[in-house]
Design a protein that fits this description.
Oligomer: heterodimer
Largest sheet of chain B: 6 strands, mixed
Helix content of chain B: under 10%
Distance between the termini of chain B: 37 Å
Shape of chain B: globular
Radius of gyration of chain A: 13 Å
Largest sheet of chain A: 7 strands, mixed
Shape of chain A: globular
Order of helices and strands of chain A: EEEEEEEEEEE
Strand content of chain B: over 45%
Chain lengths: 112, 113
């Protein structure tokens, strides 16, 4: 009964070649998040959606974009991936009344 | 500048003993704190949380303590079991709305038989 699904689990792209990561949720929650986690680092929030309202973190590079065509789906687009963008990308939605977040399994991005 | 710090990258504990994971924060606006557990190749799994109006929250083998004056929280696991071996992340939020979480770098807990 997966509640947050991320596809693909592993993605390999070439330097500069656009890539899209996909996330879907079955909780029908109005909030979705994208985090980036580099090796041995803390997960870092890139942006979140509250319904269709897009909220970008101040230090998220312009290279990262997102789309949310409906409540269930959210996409992360990396327009020109650099070697430094290799990371685990985590999608999450909210559960509970407070800010408990439920994470998907992540997509491991490799940039060659 | 890290607002949530986990200063121990790893911790080794014998099975059956108590595991204590520590976390410090600097942002006074944080009012909700969470612990997540992460296995390799999986996303973080929510474990337990605590509001800043409390100083303790317990759920089975897991207890979280919050010391607001020291801006410190800790997660106690007792007794520790082999399945507890994982990376534990401390996270914090302010306002409780739709804002994202601020995470620490994690502590790798290893339970030895």
């Amino acid at each position: 009964d997966a509640m947050v699904i991320q596809n693909p689990r592993y993605q390999v792209t070439q330097f500069g070649k656009p890539v899209t990561l996909s996330c879907s949720q079955t909780l029908n929650h109005n909030v979705m998040y994208w985090y980036q986690q580099k090796s041995s680092q803390a997960p870092k929030l890139l942006f979140h959606y509250y319904d269709k309202d897009f909220n970008n973190e101040a230090d998220t590079p312009d290279n990262f974009q997102s789309r949310r065509p409906n409540t269930s789906f959210c996409f992360l687009d990396i327009r020109s991936p650099g070697l430094g963008d290799a990371a685990m990308y985590l999608c999450a939605t909210k559960i509970g009344r407070r800010n408990e977040q439920f994470f998907g399994p992540g997509t491991r991005l490799t940039v060659l | 500048d890290q607002q949530v710090k986990q200063n121990s990258p790893s911790l080794s504990v014998q099975e059956g003993r108590i595991s204590i994971l520590n976390c410090d924060y600097t942002n006074s606006m944080f009012d909700y704190f969470l612990w997540y557990k992460k296995y390799p190749a999986e996303g973080p799994t929510f474990l337990i949380s605590i509001s800043s109006i409390k100083d303790k929250n317990e759920d089975g083998r897991f207890t979280v303590f919050l010391n607001k004056s020291a801006k410190h929280l800790s997660l106690h696991i007792v007794p520790s079991q082999p399945g507890d071996s994982a990376v534990y992340f401390c996270a914090a939020s302010d306002g409780g709305g739709a804002d994202g979480l601020t995470f620490g770098k994690g502590t790798h807990l290893i339970i030895q038989p």
